[in-house]
Amino acid sequence: MCVKQEQSRWRDKIQRCTNVNRKDYCNYGGRGISMSIEFHDFDVWNSYIKSLPDYGKPGYTIDRIENDGNYERGNLRWASKSTQACNRRMSPKNTSGYIGVYWSKQDKKWRSNLNTLGKVIYFGMFDTPEDAARARNEYIIKHKLGNKQNRGV
Predict the structure, then answer these.
(1) For residues 39 and 118, what is the distance between their CA atoms, to the nearest angstrom?
(2) Contact status, residue 15 vs residue 28, Cβ threshold 8 Å
(3) C-alpha to C-alpha distance for 109 and 14, rounded to whole angstroms
(4) What would you measure as the largest C-alpha separation in the chain, in angstroms?
(5) Phi, psi of 22, rounded to the nearest 5 degrees
(6) Judging by beta carbons within 10 Å of its beta carbon (0-12, 13-18, 19+), is residue 66 exposed, middle or buried?
(7) How many angstroms separate the CA atoms of 22 and 6, rounded?
(8) pLDDT-derived band of residue 133, with 50, 70 and 90 as boundaries?
(9) What is 90-153's CATH number?
(10) Residue 115 β-bridge partners
(11) Secondary structure E strands in 1-153
């Protein structure tokens, strides 16, 4: 990648974390996401991201491993669009507190599923949201997927 393109992307990341007038600020700085002070220096940023695995791989861009985390060392990786699509935050409409776990009014049980590689995989119905979240996590681990796992189960 050319340096000018990298500088432009770097500036964009800082702006969406700091500029309240940007339309996407609410999804970054407005949620408390920031860029570490050391990365406000482009040379430091550029050197670090070039040292990460998969740098320069076609179709890969910088992604935050923990979607609610900052742009900082240890929380950045080069990832494909499909991996990044799996790394979404939980919907504010979610009532279970777990990603991929929903209450089924019809069955009166917790339903568990996973969206990955353009398809939805259903894990069944469970008595507790924790059991549903565990089933989803186990599948992600077993199949070595990049999907975000649920914590605390």
Answers:
(1) 34
(2) no
(3) 43
(4) 56
(5) -80, 145
(6) exposed
(7) 20
(8) very high
(9) 3.30.730.10
(10) 120
(11) 61-64, 76-79, 101-104, 109-116, 119-126
Q: Kindly report, residue by residue over 41-88, the tens digit of the pLDDT.
A: 999 999 999 999 999 999 999 999 888 899 999 999 999 887 887 777
Residue 79 bridge partners (DSSP):
61
Cα separation, 85 vs 68, in Å, equals 14
Amino acid residing at 128: T
Residue type, 117: L
The full length of the chain comes to 153
pTM: 0.70
Structure tokens at 72: 């900082």
Most confident of 36-50, 87-101, 131-145: 36-50
* Residue limits of CATH 3.30.730.10 in the chain: 90-153
Question: In whole angstroms, what is the distance from residue 114 CA to residue 121 CA?
Answer: 5
What is the pLDDT, as a whole number, of residue 45?
97
Beta-carbon neighbour count of residue 75 at 10 Å?
A: 15
Residue type, 60: Y
